[in-house]
Write a structure and sequence with these properties.
The chain is mainly β. The protein contains 2 helices and 19 strands. The chain has one domain: Sandwich (Jelly Rolls). It is globular.
């Protein structure tokens, strides 16, 4: 009998297993080295809004008869697999309800707040009360989705070789009008996909990994820390970035003023995501650059759309902050323009 604290002598089977383990470890090391080398030679970011605006998608909300068909009930698939009604959509077919989480409770064209885009008369109000399962409050952070109809109107996704990007204007109301809750209040996000080698989630016990399409949603989240609910002397807001190479969120710049802001994201052919934000409604510039990332270690291959998250504490009593957006546009750089 062997001492349980002493190593067991290696027999032929164990030696074979150890050889296989060392070989797999070597392959993993090589893969990580190649990935690191690839990330180290990432392409230069470009400013969102560069290139040609695609007029078939996006919105400036200047149509006086702009409307939204809610088609209740809304979806709460992420919580209880309920896919809702027929799906809400705008009357101009440029926006639709997120299938996973449902649309905001209020989607309404309003007069553009002061300081907006010169000449703008209309913008869009997004606000929610029941962000989770309607009439079944969870008393924790939930969110609704409002999606720009790019994928369907253009007949498919856009390869990142076309350098897609989007920009939008977001009105941040005075701090005393924000929902009194610490955490995420609003988000500006993109929907992209890539190919990864993985085992399907619904596969059986002995399934093997295969190449699959993987969708993910990088973006910028507006975070709020209320002085009433924290140890801070003043209210505090900042931009949270999703995400880094391991998939984690990290802290971006502080929001030092309310009113109108311009946000944008761009996507380069190397699969990198670039984040920009700036107070005001001027076009973004190099000075508005925040960071460039390969979220989750993925290299995105195709851009599908962009969308907004409206968040609240889902207590069935407290409305989210009133978020207003304007001039939401999509761009790409034609191949001939880069020759």
């Amino acid at each position: 009998m062997h001492d349980p604290l002493s190593p067991v002598p290696a027999g032929p089977a164990l030696e074979s297993l150890m050889s296989i383990t060392r070989f797999l470890g070597l392959l993993l090391t090589i893969a990580l080295f190649c990935q690191s080398a690839s990330l180290a030679h990432a392409q230069k970011p470009f400013i969102p809004g560069t290139g040609q605006k695609v007029v078939q998608v996006g919105d400036d909300f200047e149509e006086e008869n702009w409307g939204f068909e809610f088609n209740w009930p809304k979806s709460s698939k992420n919580l209880n697999e309920f896919t809702g009604g027929a799906g809400g959509k705008s009357t101009n077919d440029r926006w639709y309800e997120g299938v996973k989480r449902g649309q905001p409770d209020i989607v309404k064209r309003v007069e553009t707040p002061p300081g907006g885009v010169p000449g703008s008369k209309g913008a869009l109000l997004l606000q929610s009360l029941r962000t989770g399962i309607p009439n079944s409050p969870s008393y924790k952070l939930q969110q609704d989705d409002f999606v720009c109809n790019i994928h369907y109107r253009l007949g498919g996704s856009i390869p990142v070789s076309q350098n897609p990007s989007f920009t939008c204007k977001v009105f941040l109301p005075p701090i005393d009008e924000w929902e009194e809750r610490n955490g995420c209040s609003f988000a500006i996000r993109g929907s992209v996909d890539t190919r990864v080698f993985k085992v399907p989630e619904d596969a059986g016990r002995y399934a093997t990994a295969r190449m699959m399409r993987e969708e993910y949603w990088p973006g910028m989240f507006i975070q709020f820390e209320s002085k009433e609910r924290s140890n801070r002397e003043d209210d505090y807001a900042w931009i949270r970035i999703r995400g880094n190479n391991r998939g984690g969120d990290f802290r971006g710049p502080q929001i030092t003023q309310t009113g109108w802001w311009t946000f944008g994201m761009s996507f380069t052919p190397d699969g990198q995501v670039h984040y920009y934000a700036s107070p005001g409604v001027d076009d973004l510039t190099e000075e508005d650059y925040i960071t460039s990332q390969f979220p989750y270690g993925y290299k995105c291959e195709r851009f599908q759309t962009f969308f907004f998250n409206v968040c609240n504490g889902d207590d069935n009593r407290t409305w989210s902050t009133k978020w207003i957006v304007d001039d939401c546009f999509f761009y790409y750089i034609p191949q001939t323009a880069r020759r």
